[in-house]
Amino acid sequence: MKALLIVDVQYDFLPGGALAVPNGDKVIPVINKLQGIFPLVVATQDWHPPDHGSFASAHKGREPFETTTLGGLEQILWPDHCVQGTRGAAFSEDLDMNAVEAIFRKGLDPAIDSYSGFFDNGKKKTTGLSDYLQGKGVKTVYVTGLAADFCVAFTALDSIGERFETVLVEDATRPIDPEGFGKMKSSIRQKGGKIVQSAAI
Ligand code: VGL
Ligand code: ZN
Fold first, then answer.
1. With a 6 A CB cut-off, is 104 part of the ligand 1 pocket?
2. Where are the domains of the chain?
3. What's the gap in Å between 66 CA and the centre of ligand 2?
4. Given this model, what pLDDT does residue 128 score?
5. Residue 137 CB: number of other CB atoms within 10 A?
6. By CB count within 10 A, which of 57, 108, 128, 129 is most buried?
7. Given 12, 25, 80, 106, which residue is catalytic?
8. CATH 3.40.50.850 applies to domain 2-48+82-200
9. What is the pTM of this model?
């Protein structure tokens, strides 16, 4: 059993959004097309309270893209994004959501960030995604969505760690920083993950 995992295809990560990923909208038709060949489709949603500790605005005198520590971990400070209930946190209306069986939300705890769809950045709490996939008999997870160098890459790494065969679909994702994504791809490959183009699936 294989599952398609759609990470954070939300307005704030799309062109015009608060934390826009360059060409992020290009992933949508690729993901919509892929959905038809998967028996299970699951999505994640970045879902922050307004005072989330990953926001530069929550730290006096600090600017987006500076770094600090949060929950004892190095933290990049982001522009306010994906605030619960706002349009920026909503899934793109161009993304086909009809086949999405479950949505796993993350980033709710203001004291810690959560890039992966499986765990927070300190691996203190699970979202339940791993048990859910296991319960469905999933062996292979195909990871897509935004942003390639953060939530998509960390989701792929945790998927490998949870012993799923893990495949990152390169043309179904886009990075904030291509250089950072290059490093994350090496790490994914080195840990046993695969990186493929959607045409080969
Ligand atoms: C993400 C930064 C902060 C992502 C989420 O979805 O890649 N990146 N929150
Ligand atoms: Zn976030």
1. no
2. 2-48+82-200
3. 15
4. 98
5. 10
6. 129
7. 106
8. yes
9. 0.98
